[in-house]
Design goal:
160 residues, alpha+beta, 3-stranded antiparallel β-sheet, 8 strands, globular
Length: 160
């Protein structure tokens, strides 16, 4: 099924009382005017859970990229990663942000709530990497373990 962003289009009232359309997925909203590159054709194969381990190894594992859609049931994980659910459970948790330049020299520790409110917005394309901060994963995995354990990876493996 082809993704249609307007399937998730909702109307939001802005602070100045003007209605703004947005694309919402689990409470994570994107305003169409903030999309810097429109969706376009994808030449990467998309497969579902009918892909066998043998076919994965033969056609994809070492030769070309692959998108696996619905490779495992992650309905619970999707529900737990909605914006309101994450903020309720982890809003006060301290997360580490890294600068987006090559070696991520600078680090910042802030609450997850602060990250969501002040760092998850469209970036000016002229902003330098050392002025841009992302949550790359340099965080307390024990604190996030209960959530991360709910994620089911696709069943494909590489030989050792």
């Amino acid at each position: 099924m082809k993704f249609n962003p307007w399937t998730y289009c909702i109307i939001i009232w802005s602070c100045d009382g003007i209605r703004k359309p947005s694309i919402s997925n689990g409470g994570w909203e994107t305003y169409p005017s903030d999309i810097s590159v429109p969706p376009g054709p994808c030449n990467i194969p998309i497969r579902d859970n009918t892909l066998s381990q043998e076919e994965f190894l033969e056609k994809f594992a070492f030769t070309e990229p692959l998108i696996v859609r619905d490779g495992a049931n992650n309905d619970l994980f999707r529900a737990l990663t909605g914006k309101s659910e994450l903020l309720s459970e982890y809003g006060d948790s301290v997360v580490r942000l890294s600068s987006a330049n090559t070696h991520s020299y600078e680090k910042k520790d802030i609450t997850f709530s602060d990250y969501c409110q002040h760092h998850l917005s469209p970036q000016n394309l002229n902003t330098y990497g050392n002025e841009t901060f992302y949550m790359f994963g340099d965080n307390d995995f024990i604190e996030w373990k209960e959530l991360l354990d709910e994620y089911s990876q696709p069943p494909y493996t590489l030989p050792r």
